[in-house]
Amino acid sequence: MTRPTSPTHPAPSFTVTRRGALGLAGVGLAGGLATPALAQPTIEWKMATAWPADLPGPGQAAQRICDAIALLSGGRMRVRLFPAGGLVPGSEVFDAVSAGTAQMGHASATFWQDRLPAAVFFATVPFGFLPHEHVTWIEQGGGQALWDRLYAPFAVKPFPGGNGGGQLGGWFMKPVQTLDDLKGLRVRMPGLGGEVMRRLGATPVSLPPAELVPALKSGLIDAAEFLGPESDRAMGFQTVSKLCYTPGFHEPNGTTEALVNRVAYEGLPDDLRAIIAAACRMETLHGMSESAWKNAEAMRQLVAEDGVELKVYPTEITSALRDTSNDVVAGLAAGGDLDREIYKSYVRALARLALWSDASERLFLERRRLS
Q: Is residue 80 part of a domain?
């Protein structure tokens, strides 16, 4: 996959003019020309996604954004969704939007981590923001402006485009009670969480989702994480393991992103730009509420019907995971001036919000559970 550029990697040599923006937008006349005063152009866009068609969660989120744009615009703008492989492979969504092959994309910022390390701050990092805290940083704490700057060299405008909430810690074939139990543990945990586990002596293993349950059953791996209770139960983890650990320290937030080609975006009238932003904001709220509702029921089923034992990581392991996570995340600041600025903004916002979250949500939830 083509490497996105940055201040240290010059941008791809493509230029799109204002006239080209109209081409990217796919402008065409709706209806005939018999009544010119009433005729309005219909703007036809493409959205490439990193998800299979109708994938519960992010795949459906992408389609809802397309539907909302058509509805809110009164049909003046329509976005056709292309699932992974339909227009470009899922791994090439960012590049497709950057080049204008698709005017929009839907993916996760974690997918660009190897090329833009700081992008993960706009999705999730270990022991980082919860979903509502992440939205707050994006909208109130300067996160959106930094996100815009990070993607600007690629002519990409990002928006939060949904949120699948937090995750479970993982499914284990045997208990982990001390740090020694992590040493040599073959665990499927990608990204920064996998690096944290590696530093604590585990062996991260890369496997596609469809192979996780068979790998646990055959003994190829000792533990695996995937998503939240709904997705994990649908995958069948509870059929091979009755031991699930929490919390999902590695991905406490589930922000997905909607990507827009910046030249095409700036070629739109103000109201259509506002409609795109509104559709993405609507989907973020929808995703947070939907994931919480469905995961709550799936969690009940896992425990009450499937006999799963939900265990909390022991304090010794949790402390080591937290301290190591802080080191791994801090290392992202080494990527350059903008990466360091994003990291500092994230850490400042986390400290500010954590004080209130502890005084409100955490203490309230503890007391509510005792009632």
A: yes
Percent of the chain having pLDDT more than 70?
89
Give per-residue pLDDT as tens, 201-214. 999 998 888 899 99
Is residue 107 a part of any domain in this protein?
Answer: yes
> Would residue 128 count as lying in a domain?
yes
Four-residue CA torsion sign, 175, 176, 182, 187: positive
Domain containing 81 — which CATH number? 3.40.190.170
Domain that holds residue 142: 18-32+40-165+253-293
Local structure of 204: helix, strand or coil: strand
Number of structural domains the chain divides into: 1
State pTM to two decimals: 0.85
Which helix (H) or strand (E) covers residue 260, if one does?
A: strand 255-261
Write the CB contacts of 123 (distance below 8 Å, at least 6 apart in sequence): 108, 109, 110, 253, 254, 255, 256, 257
For the stretch 34-58, what's the b/e string if a residue is b when 16 or more beta carbons lie within 10 angstroms of its beta carbon? eeeeeeeebbebbbbbbbeeebbbb
Which tokens belong to 176? Answer: 């982990």
